[in-house]
């Protein structure tokens, strides 16, 4: 019998391969490697060949154009290569769910919600967090099949690998250990044979010491005034995560009291409007700038850092940088060259991804400056509470696991391409933008972790808005248009209380009435028969009919404080990881963000040549050339007798830094 690859001219005798795979000699192993690899280089292996090789712990690295051999007992070449895993869609558990979908499509949530036992089994609670997923289009049988899929995907083993510090981010060769950032001092979490928890706490202790000194007035600015205002410069995860936590805490009575007299701003965009907003009302002598960049080379962040350095030195002189600017970075050489004292740089590690970095110095420094380190510690404790639950709880009781499995069910089987995050709490207004990055940058992948094109849908579009604002924005679509699974998040005890005499309910009760009603409205809908019974004219019935059967889940938190904010963050982080583990993708790299940035370098070079030397635009396609010329036509040429720093004139008063009107940058 022969194993044949269509694109190759030669075939491999199965007897030869089998003999080599069972032989104890290195010579046989080399013969196998040579004979099989010669037949399949630059070719896709046939299904027959792939099946045989899989049974012999062998597989073919088609994308890398080489044969991969995993854990072969006699082949020394095996040490440098890694085996491929079968796609999850090729497993019996996946096919069982596909077959089960037909049964679910014959059901309706209005009927499923009549089953009390079913509903009771789909309400889970851990450490004060209640999650009700009874309005998902699932039965107990569905859940059993999803848990079987998790077992097939080796979910428990993958979670264990993450907590053990294994390099599960294979494309970058890194561990994924953001859980270590919130581990108590006594915990042991290792990476490459070293317990990293002491390193984490060394940085946390340094953060506490520095932020305490700033807050109590021991550390002051160059003129001797206290530094009461902070501008944190960062982009992506260095901005969205800290902003989410800051927004969640600024109206909580305890943290509001601890931040009295202080201001925290974020600067992420290179748009000068963002600079103007960040600096509005601030004075240089009371402002501390935190520059967040692991490598200290991120283009947008470093341009903004240079902008704020110029703003500070324009009023206070160059010696002010060491007192008014600090860094969150590991590149101490560039930090020092920038003018920041390396002693005032706070480290984080390669095993911390940007979108998972809010629990590192990235978030801890600005948040501790604003609210005090005790608040940050409570936030970390809340996240660790869910970390332990995710690591240790059985899959059938594990909140992030169950939520991740339900998302896989909705995306890959029901074809739902989006999910709405709907917190009925204004303080959570920045949750959806943060989770948007955590989810879409993590799971927005089209290939498996082994580089194979996915034959199924993975990833989802995440968006959201606090209730009840969203009800008057996009709920029309989720009720009568596309099917969009929804996360409703409610708070039992509001951060603020308003109750007016004569009103039926308090303001917060009114908000929560909508929280409870919307989930049921999506589930039950409204039938034609119900509309006719209400006397609705026939011509309006199609327009007022709600199909219902639209999935959602409801989450209740006891209150919104630093601890529960940490819990909420961790639930979503691990939910996203679960989805990626099931889909068999790498949720911890982000190569998709690189191409546009590299192309922008070409545009930047051309922009400079056009605006400073008057050179024509060239080297681009017709469309880009046309738009660039149109843009440049509306700009002034940057030709000054001497260079000047230009700031928004309404933010920085005076004329010293303002270029004459006819030359002002637009």
UniProtKB/TrEMBL annotation:
InterPro entries, per database record: G6P_Isomerase, G6P_Isomerase_C, Phosphoglucose_isomerase_CS, SIS_dom_sf, SIS_PGI_1, SIS_PGI_2
Gene3D superfamilies: 1.10.1390.10, Glucose-6-phosphate isomerase like protein, domain 1
Keyword hit for Transmembrane helix: no
Protein EC: 5.3.1.9
Catalytic activity: alpha-D-glucose 6-phosphate = beta-D-fructose 6-phosphate
One Pfam family matching this protein: PGI
Assigned keywords, A-Z: Gluconeogenesis, Glycolysis, Isomerase
Pathway recorded for this protein: Carbohydrate degradation; glycolysis; D-glyceraldehyde 3-phosphate and glycerone phosphate from D-glucose: step 2/4
The keyword Isomerase is annotated on this UniProt entry: yes
Subunit structure: Homodimer.
Family: Belongs to the GPI family.
Name listed for the protein in its UniProt record: Glucose-6-phosphate isomerase
Organism: Sphagnum jensenii
Highest classification ranks of the organism: Eukaryota, Viridiplantae, Streptophyta, Embryophyta, Bryophyta
